[in-house]
Design a protein that fits this description.
There is one protein chain. With 248 residues, the protein is an alpha/beta fold. Among the domains are: 1-33; 40-136; 180-209. Helix content is 52%, strand content 19%. The protein has five helices and seven strands; from the N terminus they run H-E-E-E-E-E-E-E-H-H-H-H. It has a seven-stranded mixed beta sheet, with no helix packed on it. Strand 3 and strand 4 form a beta hairpin.
Length: 248
């Protein structure tokens, strides 16, 4: 005797059908990400340090995901080989002199392998060919550099603060210049004396020009200057006339 009701059988069938459908969709999505349903070709490259790159990470060309990392093998103590599976329809755009570099998806995202564009003169890459690579910059190295910069900035800030304290306290040459009113008054007097000396020098030069012994010399200088000015004006007028005739 059948102990299960018709409603239970319907629910069981729907549950099994839903599970099968989810399984098929998952297989399709994973297969699409891993390029199982697309024709692909294989290329390789080597790194000294893959910097956290893993099998299955995306490969990008011109910012577009074109494949996945297929395998990572340690060749020796200084070489790690990375095998890549790239979609076949992208092969014609990748050149033999293209380079592979390791980046990340965002600041703290997964690692990604970027393939750069090659030169127009280079040949199209072949299946199984190896390309050059550029070593990634380690996050630890960046943090160490930033830490060193922060330490230097802190030292400079402390030194500037110490200098400002000394200036405000009247210490040092700059501090005395700012805080000591006597030095400021002496500087003002010096500037005033220089102005007076300059005015006196101008008066002396004017007196020398009117001296009958040197008056002829200064007159010659003035005439030479006027003659040169007339020649310059004449030359400029000639050039302007020639330019006007050329335009006509």
């Amino acid at each position: 005797m059948d102990k299960h009701t018709q409603k239970f059988k319907v629910r069981l069938g729907l549950f099994i059908s839903g599970g099968i459908l989810l399984f098929v969709v998952a297989i399709f999505i994973i297969g699409k990400q891993q390029n199982l349903f697309n024709p692909v070709f294989k290329i390789t490259t080597t790194f000294y340090n893959v910097s956290g790159l893993q099998v299955g990470n995306n490969i990008r060309f011109s910012g577009i995901t074109v494949g996945t990392v297929d395998n990572i093998i340690i060749i020796n103590d200084s070489t790690v080989r990375v095998d890549m599976l790239v979609r076949k329809n992208v092969q014609k755009f990748i050149k033999a002199d293209s380079e592979a570099g390791i980046g990340s998806e965002g600041i703290i995202g997964d690692r990604v392998l970027n393939i750069t564009q090659g030169s127009n003169e280079a040949s199209v890459i072949k299946d199984g060919q190896s390309i050059l690579s550029t070593e990634p910059v380690e996050t630890d190295a960046i943090m160490k550099s930033l830490l060193g910069t922060a330490v230097n900035a802190e030292i400079i800030t402390l030194q500037l603060a110490e200098i400002m304290v000394n200036i405000n306290s009247g210490e040092g040459t700059i501090g005395r210049l700012i805080q000591d009113t006597t030095i400021a008054e002496n500087i003002n007097k010096t500037i005033l004396n220089l102005r007076r000396s300059s005015r006196g020098l101008d008066e002396n030069m004017e007196a020398v020009k009117h001296n009958f012994l040197l008056k002829g010399y200064f007159n010659k200088k003035e005439k030479a200057a006027e003659q040169k000015k007339k020649e310059d004006e004449k030359l400029k007028a000639t050039e302007q006339k020639a330019l006007d005739e050329k335009k006509k």
